[in-house]
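User: Can you help me understand a structure? I only have the sequence.
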Amino acid sequence: MRVIIHQKPPQEDWFAQFPNFKRNPNAKVSDEFQRLGKQRNWRPWGPAWSKYWYGCMDAEYERLIGNRDTSLVTWQQMCAKLGLDANLDSIRKCKKEISRVHVNIVDLIDYWETDQRPRFFKSRRALARNLKTGMRFPLQIAKQNKVIRALLGEAF
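Assistant: Let's start by predicting it. Here is the structure, written out as tokens:
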């Protein structure tokens, strides 16, 4: 069973639920969320901040990638976004390639609609140190999606 945390249908802009906030479509999702948090006086990683952060990440993931984990095209798109061979001919091959990279899922979402690539880490340990900074994708949601779960690797 998939837990849905976002409050808007996935194809809508998550930020639209805050009428006094105008999202900059050219800015990273995480930067816009931080700007919204300051506007609404949410204490970073406090209860309100955390609740909305997880909802925002879930909604943005659904909007950009969605739950199309049985589509080879989705897996090929993920490979392309990660700078991997996007012409692999099976989901299994894509999954194997994706599992070899160490990237923060929030960075992947931030850069999905740009030509930039997310930051890569040399090891799982280096990625874990980065995740301690707080900019992390909700693990409960990540584990429910096969595409994102491939990025988590064997640790989960």
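Now, to help you interpret it: The chain has eight helices and no strands. Confidence is low (pLDDT under 50) at residues 1-11. Let me know which part you'd like to focus on.
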